[in-house]
């Protein structure tokens, strides 16, 4: 048995200590962000416990309703949404919330209002719940300091304006990955302490990877550049080894693997769904923010994903994100197609 200090992680850098350290670098800060984050962390712990108990506590299956996007809501979707809304409102630091599960933005009542806008996907990868595969929560945070009466229009901001983004993956362990705009750090929940401990400091995505991740079942509807890229992954023209295919179908899990091992995650637009599937505000932007902060790239097929300005709350966009060099390749294919037209 390993009794070294490292094995016991005696440094015990909890996520709270970590964010307090960051806060101390900004003497003008009043700790609002730290408080907001502690409420998000609480929400993640709560959902993690619910996910772990899902089969036992009859939390799997459908809740009997469909959300605004016509998708059947799972019981855990509904529960997670309630948990995060309560956690965020009770922090007293939010003014407006956008959830995948709610058609309209939630405007926080004035007495509980703060300056942050939080956009979130309370439970990502819901189709994987019933078979116990990794799922997660995704969130992004904007500051709306000068907005007195927030409206939906105030949230339609490009991803590059986010001040923080992250996700929590409910997998074989519970891992929270966070960026406040100064790199990316990962924290693992120690269930015996009930604390997220820094286990993945300063994550940097490999410059090039050996894995591509896409739902190939949609291939018959792909456009030229996506089809050409995936063909190159399988049959490289330069004699290098083909890439491996990994696809879980939970964005959080597929992006987490991409961040740690390198490679590319694609959810392209296609003939059936020209804007793809993934939602700009609470899926595409937070993951793109993290990718860029880790040294990777994120591209919509037309532009840098974080430059996109959404025109509605639940807008979708094609997305290609991951290792810098891999995304560079797909950007070149789309640029070449643009010149041909
Ligand atoms: O089943 P598909 O079409 O490959 O889509 C998978 C994608 O859909 C999602 O499950 C959508 O997220 P939700 O479960 O939050 O709706 C992503 O997590 C994942 O990347
Ligand atoms: Mg999702
Ligand atoms: Mg979801």
UniProtKB/TrEMBL annotation:
Alphabetic keyword roster: Carbohydrate metabolism, Cytoplasm, Hydrolase, Magnesium, Metal-binding
Family matches, as Pfam families: FBPase, FBPase_C
Membrane-spanning ranges: none
Main location: cytoplasm
Top-rank taxon, per record: Eukaryota
GO biological-process terms attached to the record: fructose 1,6-bisphosphate metabolic process; fructose 6-phosphate metabolic process; fructose metabolic process; gluconeogenesis; photosynthesis; sucrose biosynthetic process
Cofactor: Mg(2+)
Any GO molecular function: metal ion binding
Enzyme Commission designation: 3.1.3.11
Catalytic activity, as annotated: beta-D-fructose 1,6-bisphosphate + H2O = beta-D-fructose 6-phosphate + phosphate
Any Gene Ontology CC annotation: cytosol
Residue span, Fructose-1-6-bisphosphatase class 1 C-terminal domain: 205-334
Subcellular location: Cytoplasm
Alphabetical list of InterPro entries matching this protein: FBPase_C_dom, FBPase_class-1, FBPase_N, FBPtase, Fructose_bisphosphatase_AS
Domain Fructose-1-6-bisphosphatase class I N-terminal: 13-199
Similarity-based family: Belongs to the FBPase class 1 family.
Name assigned to this protein: Fructose-1,6-bisphosphatase, cytosolic
Originating species: Phaseolus coccineus (Scarlet runner bean)
UniProt lineage: Eukaryota, Viridiplantae, Streptophyta, Embryophyta, Tracheophyta
